[in-house]
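Question thread 4412

I'm putting together a teaching handout and wanted feedback from people who do this every day. The idea is simple: show students a protein as raw sequence, then show them the structure tokens that encode its fold, then repeat with a second protein so they can compare. Below is the first pair exactly as I plan to print it.
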Amino acid sequence: MKIEQLYTKCLSEATYYIMSKGEAAVIDPLRDIASYLEKAKRDKAKIKYVFLTHFHADYVSGHVDLAKATGATIVYGPTATADFDFYKGKDNELFTIGRLKLKLLHTPGHTLESSSYLLFDEEEKEYCLFSGDTLFINDVGRPDLAVTSSITKEELTEKLYYSLHEKILGLPDHVLIYPNHGKGSACGKNMSNETYDTLANQKKVNYALNTDLSKEEFVKQVLNGLAVPPQYFPKNAKMNKRVNTSINEIIARGMSPIEVNQYQHYLSLENVMLLDVRSPKEYLEKHIPNSVFIGLDGTFASWVGTLIENINQPIILLAPDGREEEAVTRLARVGYDNVLGYIKGGINAWEKEGLIIESIQNLEADDLELLDKESSFLDVRSIKEFGDDRVNVSENLPLNHIHVAANSFEKEKEYFVYCKSGYRSVIAISFLKQKGFNNLININGGFNAIKKSLIPTKNCKKNCPTCACNK
């Protein structure tokens, strides 16, 4: 028996490869299927099934391409409907993979078709549960994403309550819980950094598995504090119900090198976005005018899906040399398939042509000049982070609200912009520049650096002369 968890940190997403006696199955595959094909080839195994726990909202799945490449059967739970051929599994139905058996447990709540898969080992003992977005480590899947005219989030939460109590809590304590997501995913609100756990321990630490909670209390606790989901979620959910362009085609098109003079031509023809995916430091030092920044070395995919509102947006990339295909692939994972190519030669080619380069002032937090200026601090962290601690004279503009909330701020005012460590602040500055903000200064190292400086914060304990806590 072989079970492999493949964890994609950018999406906080886990997918699974199972193999026994020359037969394999994949659970919740990513859109780029090469890794699964390579594993099956390594194991000299045939991929027999592609199991889906539900129609994912936070990424585009590779189930159709994987089934086409291997002849595998796609399996969804009861009530699922889609534009491609698949097998609609029944509650408690068993599937055989070599000497293993996988039982489909219909566990609606996160979505109506949501299912979990209970794996029995070679000795026919319950071994682990692939719980999808029904049960996370320390949390459960949010029930507000599948709301329709015929079902409310409260009704979905009640279904989740019964799924947990009737299907999962009665399993043996030693069963391992393998969820679809971990901390950082917007599919829940309180997930752990751990990517698996025993059911026994989850019964102790997961608030949603507290059997003392009544159904009404469960509904209230699960729905309390849910953030607004990223705008791309319903778009990805729709894509997962249809046949999409092959990722190989998307990569082939996106890997087209574009000369600097060709880029000018693209701008004249289409509403093209130039997406700079280098490091924050590189973007601050020099970037192409009117480009926006979302760096690859961060939670790239989720910020793309949150901030680029048009999923069909034509995009040209400015990427680190050798990472162009990675950028195209990671965009396609969340359905941004319209990459036209990348700037050949990058920023250096732009400079060689003598074209305009822009930069953004990047100050250290301990620069005393900050204390002498009557400028505002712009905190682009989440509302919760801002409430926990912040610069005393700061205003909050959460990055995920930037398209709407930016209209409430003065475009000509000078702002010192910060986040936690310096990734989100550079993203925010690039999008604010598109909206006409021209007096933006980045604080290097973000709030982590500010806490070590003399800048007074809400919870300051430094006893510095200028600190508001001494007044």
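The second pair follows. I'd like the answer to focus on this one:
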Amino acid sequence: MTEMTDNPLMAEATGQTAGKDTGERHHHGVSFGEAFKVWLRVAALSFGGPAGQIAVMHRIVVDEKRWIGEHRFLHALNYCMLLPGPEAQQLAIYIGWLMHRTLGGLVAGLLFVLPGFLSILCLSYIYAAYGSVGIVAGLFFGLKAAVLAVVVQAVIRIGSRALRNNIMLAIAAAAFIAIFFLHVPFPLIVLAAGFAGFLGGRFGLAAFSPGGGHKAGSGPVLSDADSALGEGIPAHARPDLGWSLRISAALLALWLVPVAAIYVSLGPGDVFSQIGLFFSQMAVVTFGGAYAVLAYVAQEAVQHFGWLKPGEMLDGLGMAETTPGPLIMVVQFVGFMGAYRNSGSLDPMFAATLAAILTTWVTFVPCFLWIFLGAPFIEKLRGNAALAGAMSAITAAVVGVILNLAIWFGVHTLFAEVAAVQLGGLRLDIPVLQSAVPAAMALSVAAAIAIFRFKTSVITTLLVCAISGMLWTLAVG
């Protein structure tokens, strides 16, 4: 007999509800304890920005654990791509919520952020105290080179399954051209693809239907019906306006009440007030991920607030790129250095630590709000033909965007310098060939051979490359 629990969140996660019929209990067979371990693993392997993180999550949750099917995974990803904030973390919240209700979403989302938060906090301590990260840079250098192979694997894996026909290929190509060459804002690309897909689905075009088209993905595709969760909508995932209002009010309070309290008690000129307000604003405009707002954040942090010195944003970006977790975690470094240099009567390191926590809090709490508020309605619309067409087209566009991220990541990994070149009305970031980093290229090639040819596990590949990066750094002094 299953023991009942007095903890309401745990009861919700496990499907146990005292005094209620257990007919609403999950039957996917995945215990909360097992899910906790899986989300820890996903978090620990979440290197390489959104492309690498989505790849890792897909490989573990869909291919290996078979929790949810391919269509459901892409449907959830498409919704997350429409939201402000880090889409990979929001996808983890979404899947965690589907599997184990509110507590599952909270745990999946928190664990996704925790390793990156702790890593960047430690590196920020070293950076503030010594101005460099020493041998630690070698470890992350090796990880960064290995993650490039994981990112390429993501493009191939998702692309082979999402680009089922020529229309989807054309949408992906158009999205890539728009964002890579024309620098069209990411939200416009998604909206245009979604509108085209909506019309295609509305008029019943086969190319826009889930599974429609002529091209089969590489390898077997897990259907929703064959997954642990099945193709139906769990009872807790059905729209409930009362629950939506309660969870939204709670999350809004968690997000904004601390910011308001700091502003009222310390005043608008205090660094903590500035950090709370500025990064709360960033949380609602970061459409398209961190890349869309990094330039603005750097400009404000250097020129307006004086939190960073010129060039230091790149140091923080390097930390975020080579540690697990969302790339937007770079804002934690910005907040840390801002309070470190404007600590007032507090110890600089203590003030910086508080600022890092505050920055992370106001950046990621809204992510839970977007998912818990909207996901039940998105799940209900999963079978809608017009919406399915829109989501299919968005998936294709996302492949083009991920390809753009993969190229960006690869260029900045394999070359030490990148130059902006104007070709007519286009601005392209071209790697400076003389700045090629042979060690990074060698590690990336070795990682690719290990993953694609010998099917070596990602964690083994990352570990070997990390050690190799450290040894290389020691050898070159």
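Top answer:
Good format. For the second protein you could add a caption like this: The first strand starts at residue 418 and ends at 423. The chain has a mean pLDDT of 81.
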